[in-house]
């Protein structure tokens, strides 16, 4: 068996860029702190809209080369975050971006949305049984905002967590393993409201004309649903650089704490990232470390070791 650090974190995302926008600070923090961080991305994001004019030729209705290009963007982003273990579910290009809900691409052969759930989950079971992460991070059942690939990523992650623990399931994929804690990405409504007011007030210092709204942000919930936060402010610069590496999808001016997707609407970057624990025991009433309370971690350099 491979020697892995004591703390192991697995994140499951739909497209390249989702990981940096949602969890970039968390990933940078744990990677810097010696934990093993594994990212599984389910599609290449082939249906994304392309922001820079000079790359528009990559778009799906033109050369359809956005997927391979985004493999490179993701690799560059992971370099910024210090994450070396990043994989695509079933290998690069196994599942294709399904486009927005209701688009004809949803049902296209190979589209992630129309993939068999257990078959897709089995690819992730192999990763879970190999890495044995104590903590899994993914989206809520709505995928945060209703995108079919995000909903499917949620379903695959939750299903794989169950199947990985099932002794009778596919022993060829490794020994059964139970993940201790599962979190969904969240954003507290009050916090994001305040951040939007700040973006609004400083909008004239940004290259953007208009702001997005709270309803454009995935995973927003009433504050009391949020059970954990990772203060990634020391890693904000790395998160920003990782987001910038996804240049076809994100435009982000330096050091202003704002960014825009292809709609050009300014929204706040979140250097503190928020989570809801949905499976497993919380280490405290409001956690500041996703590994809080996890038993049997042997990692003398890590956060847990330092606190022990
Ligand atoms: Zn996405």
UniProtKB/TrEMBL annotation:
Catalytic reaction(s) noted: 1D-myo-inositol 2-acetamido-2-deoxy-alpha-D-glucopyranoside + H2O = 1D-myo-inositol 2-amino-2-deoxy-alpha-D-glucopyranoside + acetate
Gene behind the chain: mshB
One MF annotation (Gene Ontology) recorded for this entry: N-acetylglucosaminylinositol deacetylase activity
EC number(s) reported in the record: 3.5.1.103
Official protein name in the record: 1D-myo-inositol 2-acetamido-2-deoxy-alpha-D-glucopyranoside deacetylase
Organism this protein belongs to: Streptomyces kunmingensis
Cofactor descriptive note: Binds 1 zinc ion per subunit.
Family in the record: Belongs to the MshB deacetylase family.
Sorted UniProt keywords: Hydrolase, Metal-binding, Zinc
Role noted for this protein: Catalyzes the deacetylation of 1D-myo-inositol 2-acetamido-2-deoxy-alpha-D-glucopyranoside (GlcNAc-Ins) in the mycothiol biosynthesis pathway.
